[in-house]
Amino acid sequence: MAKATRASDDVPDRAVCALLLIDVINDLEFVGGEKLLPRALPMAKKLAHLVQRARKARVPVIYVNDNFGRWRSDFRAQVRHCLDDGVRGRSIVELLRPNDEDYFVLKPKHSAFFSTALETLLQALETETLILTGLAGDNCVLFTAHDAYMRDYRLAVPSDCIASESPTSNAWALRHMARFLKVDTRIGAHVDFRSLKRRNRRGGRQRNVTHGG
User: Fold this and answer.
1) Angstrom distance (rounded) from CA 205 to CA 16
2) Which domains does the chain have, with CATH numbers?
């Protein structure tokens, strides 16, 4: 885990909720990327508005990104690759490029928690609610949601701020997360950052109770 150089003091040292952008710095140069692009682009436009609102509300924005096999690259190199090399995902990255106040974590597998420093960062921020967004809804977002749920985070996955290759798979993932992980799936425009921060200060982290069957 690393953090970009901070240009101001706008990002708080303690943040009871955080916005995660999963695999949005993505060249989409893989089999299936051509199917994902037309679904990811309208999603990215919605997500860009949510990111702006999060920054204004002083909610940390955390990019959790695969390096897509570019093991000698860091996060900034991946951003430059997506912007400068004429790749399929360039329009997505142009909408969602990070700024100097954002955090970033590189991940080797599907979940944002697997073999990364994300949990350490969230503990340092004293985060209690995670808003998960990005690509793909039925894959890395879903894996991350499962791992976050087992760590007792409150979860929101705005339904218009994730995308998958198939609309059917994306809808299935949202239903699954809502039913089994208690995820709030209201659209990004309905995410109320002030309310989330007030609720968390009163209630603390959720305690998940698992039931057999």
Assistant:
1) 9
2) 14-203 (3.40.50.850)
Q: How far is CA 128 from CA 102, 146, 179, 197, in A?
A: 18, 15, 20, 9
Cα 55–123–197 angle (5° rounding)? 45
- Max CA separation in the chain (angstroms): 50
Output the six-digit token pair for 121. Answer: 């960062």
Mapped onto helix, strand or coil, the DSSP state of residue 19 is strand
Alpha-carbon distance of 174 to 156, in angstroms, equals 10
The contacts of residue 51 (CB under 8 Å, 6+ apart) are: 19, 21, 61, 96
Reading the block at residue 92, the tokens are 């997505």
pLDDT in tens, 131-147: 999 999 999 999 999 99
pLDDT tens-digit readout, 152-210? 999 999 999 999 999 999 999 999 999 999 999 999 999 999 888 776 544 555 544 33
pTM greater than 0.90 (yes/no): no
pLDDT digits (tens, 9 = 90+) for 55-81: 999 999 999 998 766 666 678 888 999
